[in-house]
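Protein chain data
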Amino acid sequence: MTGKTTRQKMLKKTIEDYFVPWIKPLKMYVSDHIELAWQKPGLHRMMSNENPVPPSRKIIKTILKYSALANRYPDQGLSVRSKIAAINGLKGPENVVLGNGSSEIFDMIFRSFVTRGDQVIQEIPCFGIYKLRCELLGGKIVSVPMIYRDNQLLYNTDALLKLVSSKTKIITIANPNNPSGNFMDNRDFVKIAGTGIPFVIDEAYIEYSGLGKSQVNLIKKFQNVIITRTLSKAYGLAGLRFGYLLADEGIAGKIAATLIPWNVGTISMWTALTALEDNRDLEKKVKYNNRQVAFIIKMLENIPGLISFPSRANFILFDAGPAGYKGADIIEFATKRGIILRGEKTQYGSDGWFRVTIGTEKENQKFVGLIRDFFSFNNSKKNRLKQ
C-alpha cells in the first residue's frame, strides 16, 4: 500500500516539482546590451568593458595553429599555469586553476564553499556574477553599500566586517571595483583576510595599473585568500573565455576538483600563453587605455553637475543626477547616435548613473561629442522654460 501511494504521488508531480526550490525563481542570465550589439553590428560597443584593440599577429597565428588541432582534447594546462605562477611569484602550477573566463572560476569557488542558507558578503555596486552564483546554490547575498562621498564611491570595510556571522562562507571584493574603477586600501584587505573566511579578490582589471597593485602576496600569509583574474580585459581576449585563480596549493587543489574536465579548450589555453608572454603587446594596450580614460575625463570635467569617477580600469562611471538628468535618457540619446552605453540602477538617491567602456579613438571622441551635445541641448531647453 505504501509503495502504491508513493507511486501515485509521484505520478501527480510535474517536472517543475523536481527542481531545487531556490532555482525556481531564477532565469538565464542575458546581457541585453551585448545581444543588441551583435544584432546591430553598426552600433559602437562601448558598454561591456571589452578591449577595443584587436588581437595581435602573434595571437592570430597561435589561434590558427591550434585550430588545426581542434580534433584533440586539451591537456591540463601545465605550461600556461606554470607561466601564470611564475609571473605572480608563486611556487608552480599547483597554485593555479584555469576556467572558462573568470565567471566559471567564480562558479567553481562558490560551489566549493556555499550551500543552502549560507551567506556571501559583497560591497555594492559591483560585478553581478557574485549574486548570480550565490543564489544558484541556495545561498543569500549580503550587500554592503559603498560610501558615496565627495564625488567618490568608497569601500566600507568596517560595515562589511560587522555583518560577518557564522553563516558567512565567502567575502568577495573587486579590486579595482566594477563599476566605480577604484582600489580598496591595502590595510582593509589584511583586516578581511584576518577573519579566516574564504576571501575572494577579483582582479579582473589589475593589469591596467600593473601587478604591483595586486594582493597576490596575501596568499603567502593567509591560506583563505583567493585571487581571480581574466584575460578578457587588458589582454583583449574576451571572446576566447580564459580566466584563472591563484591560491594556496591545498585550496587550489580542492577547488580544481569541481571543474568540468577539459573546461578550457586547446585554442584558448595556448593563445592565453602567447598573450602572457607578449609583454610588449600588453604594455601597448594598457598605455592606450589609460591615455583614453584620462582624455574622456578631461574633456567632460567642466560640464556642471556631471560627476565622473576616476578609473583604474577600461570604463568610466558617471552620475548625471546632480545635473538633473537620468542615466536612462543619456543612454537612449547615445543609442540614437550609434553608441551603446551601460546603465546602473537608481542608487544613493540618484537615477543619473551611466557607464562608458573605452573604445577606439574615434569612438571616444564621438562619445565626448554626444555627451556635450546632450547637456548643451537639454540645458538650453531648461533655460528657455525658465524664461
In short: Residues 32-50+280-386 form a domain with the Aspartate Aminotransferase, domain 1 fold (CATH 3.90.1150.10). Residues 361-386 form the longest helix (26 residues).
